Amino acid sequence: MTRLPTMLSRRLRTVMASLLLCGATASFALETTTIVSSALSPSCLEYRVVGICYWLFCTPFGCKVRTSVKVRHYVPDAVVSSYSNTGANPWVEVRAMSMPNPTARAGGDGTTNHDNENTLAKFKNADVIGHPGGSVFSEFASASGYTCQGAGTAFMPYLLSTIDTLAWRYNMPELVYPEALIPGMREIGARSALNLWGNVYPRGGFLHQTDDYKSGAVVAQRSGDIVTRRGQIHVYQPLLASARDGYWPAGALMEGDASTGKWQELTPTLSTTCAVFPHGNTRVQAQRGDYAWALWRPYACCRRRGQIFLGSVDFQ
User: Fold this and answer.
1) 71 - beta bridge partners?
2) β-bridge mates for residue 78, sequence order
3) Alpha-carbon span 11 to 136, nearest angstrom
4) Residue 189 lies in a domain
5) Cβ distance 249 to 238 under 8 Å?
6) Torsion over CA: 276, 110, 164, 83 (sign)
């Protein structure tokens, strides 16, 4: 994505500011401009100086140790959409990426949404697509100091459930994984607290949940779980960066653990903050069963100040 002109960037900041002042907005068609402006969130950024890096800098006249500040902050890597009707991604500009095909046509629920019908299945499609706000976010984050690069590429499809048919619609082979069979393993929420949103496994589109918002959130967590790991039996591209000297990228996403990633709701309401599932925030049910979140992931880095990286020390 090319760098936006300064005037456009300022205009996006103004638009975002007006949205944030209003708090969560009503349901709306999710467009790229809204997603870009949503990245200007200090709360989700969570910028911190966390330590010092040491570098060995050498010249023909000798060597000396230089230091640089180690920072950690979150980056909006991707937009994760979870929606009932195949081909109806709420992010309108990317809808054509996941249209129905011969192996993925229908969608929706196997229920009339009566609360007592908790044994019937809901189904959600899911798309994980690179966040489009990269250049605007970089300008925004750089106001805090040195910034780290995320793993996401704007508009890159990392997972489209319409082409992951065997795993997404038939739960194969994860239907027989221990995580899918043993109660208490890889769950979002807790049975003991009467706040169980659902199971991470099997990582497909079907689940049993009467609350549609919670269903969308569980499916979003499942798709995020897939793309932040390598070697999964799904059709996808890993959303991961490689570590290097002075750069510590985000690892595997884990449910309920903000240190691995957090979610900013984009639709049906636009949130100014990030959270993990499950959360106690106000949950608005989407009329058409379509939801989207920005997935923010933590990165740490420091500026290179020598030829050889000697290590880093984190503050307590």
Assistant:
1) 49, 301
2) 130, 295
3) 11
4) yes
5) no
6) negative
Domain of 109 in residue numbering reads as: 6-314
Domain annotation covers residue 298: yes
Q: Express each pLDDT in 247-262 by its tens digit.
A: 999 999 999 999 999 9
HEC readout, 140-183: HHHCCCCCCCCCCCCCCEEEEHHHCHHHHHHCCCHHHCHHHHCC
User: How many structural domains comprise the chain?
Assistant: 1
Segments of the chain scoring below 70 in pLDDT: 1-28, 108, 110-119
Using omega within 30 degrees of 0 as the cis cutoff, is the peptide bond preceding 173 cis? yes
Give the pLDDT of residue 19.
Answer: 39
pLDDT score, position 114 = 54
Residue 1 lies inside a defined structural domain of this protein:
no
Confirm whether 270 is domain-assigned.
yes
- For residue 229, the model assigns a pLDDT of 98
Confidence at residue 191, expressed as pLDDT on a 0 to 100 scale: 85
Q: What is the pLDDT of residues 141-179, one digit of tens each?
A: 999 999 999 999 999 999 999 999 999 999 999 999 999
Quick one: the chain helix, strand, coil %, rounded to 5?
A: 25, 25, 50
Q: Sign (positive/negative) of CA torsion 160, 148, 44, 93? A: negative
